[in-house]
Amino acid sequence: MDWALIETWKEMEIPLHVALRGIEKAFDSWESKPRKRGIKSLLYCQEEVEAQFAEWREARVGAGEPEEQGQNGEQPRRGGEGLFTRAAILEHLKRGRISLVATCERRMKAGERETSLTGVERMLSDSVRSVVGAEELATIEREVKEQLKPYRRHMEPTVYQQTVDNLLLKRLREQFGVPRLSLFYL
Question: What is the value of pTM for the model shown?
């Protein structure tokens, strides 16, 4: 939800400094009144950010330099071709295409590396599990489940089991000194 709200602010062309000022003001307002619950979403700040944006736009009215206007209030043409020549537009599009292709190639290579690293990491995790004795594995699993006990009733069963598995593997990696390989952990 927060990312969607940020995207909306971006589409509204709210400058970053205005959004940050609105968020800061919303937090200041929240801190001034004692409350039991914390802020868990940017939705709390939405109204203040949009109010700050409205104030900012209102303050900028008349701040821009007036553009030259031709007869009947229309914009004058420059060089008979508008603001940019056809050649300049085509060159800009060509540079953009080259940049986009290069970016896609870099991401594909990084994606292949990530897939390879994830596969190697999975093999290491399986190896670590196979090396540990059943009794030791059961002991670690009990410790992990005890650690998660207060949260279990708030979690979906599949999420709970995935969390147990992740914490178990984390403990085993720490025990054997096996680092995370994924680029995500850099």
Answer: 0.39
